[in-house]
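Predict the structure of Homoserine O-succinyltransferase.
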Amino acid sequence: MTSSGSVGVVSPQTAHFAEPLTLKSGAVLPAYDLVYETYGTLNAQRDNAVLVCHALSGSHHVAGTYAGKPKSVGWWDNLVGPGKPLDTTKFFVIGVNNLGGCYGSTGPTSINPATGKPWGADFPFVTVEDWVAAQARLADLLGIERFAAVVGGSLGGMQALEWTLAFPDRVRHAAIIAAAPKLSAQNIAFNEVARQAIKSDPQFHGGHYYEHGVVPVNGLKLARMVGHITYLSDDAMGEKFGRKLRHGEHKYHWDVEFEIESYLRYQGDKFAGYFDANTYLLATKALDYFDPAFDYDGDLAAALARAKADFFVASFSTDWRFSPERSRELVFALIQNGLKVSYAELESTAGHDSFLLDDPQYHAVLRAWFDGIGV
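Done. Here is the predicted structure for Homoserine O-succinyltransferase.
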């Protein structure tokens, strides 16, 4: 580690699991790999491990940089490192690329042993529950019986919640940030529009575009543009772009005129250049399916009765995709079960993306919570 607050140069590792994994859908993965990174040192008692679960487009690369690639900064590097809120001089932090991902873990781009070709659209549906089951096997491999904390934002927060339900004796604390116990109909609708943008791209080829040597770039670009709109608040867009014109005047054409158009196209192009379309489909479906109360006639409090962890829940004032009301719904259900819950509703102009930012108030609250976790 360096003294600058960064974990420094890091390297991903790969764990292979030969034992089949039965998924919630009933499908079976005969074997699979999980790519992960670790930061800090696991103590002698093995009780200082913190699992960081990533959101839809995230990965195992949570903090630090890769050798020779100074711009390859981890997606939550502002939070994780020596002296940072999630302090790697105190905690052993683990980031994992989920099954179905496109950063090295087994997914649609991997070879299907039954065909010798990439899985493509034949890769089975994966759920939050499946991800957590696979993460638990990785924890077994690393000799971690119980996590000091499981932490995540957005879809990562759903995984943190599922950990407390599937493995209640293996989690002491859980941080659920900018998340919800299930998606609203509006959220599912946004995900479906994004999926249809991908699936209607002529280069999609029913999900087997690898075999054709193409990528459904336009569909993936549109999906990201739709998603990105929901990650930002109206205030953030107005403050950053407003109605600014790229050329200072109306040109009356279909090319970029407003700066917000330029920004969305840039984000879409960048995303389509590195992310896999089939992974995007799988991850949005995993979001849609997650609903712990489904088997409890919609009774969230009954669904959460299994949990034993102490909870930290955080929401952001301008997050309209996972609004504070949804976090409070979770908090109330946890309190009904007599669980210890800390809740922070933070002022922010940045919308859903707030959980990724280096906001002083947000980080101060997280630092205080992590400082309160004894190891």
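The chain has two domains: 13-182+290-372, 187-284.
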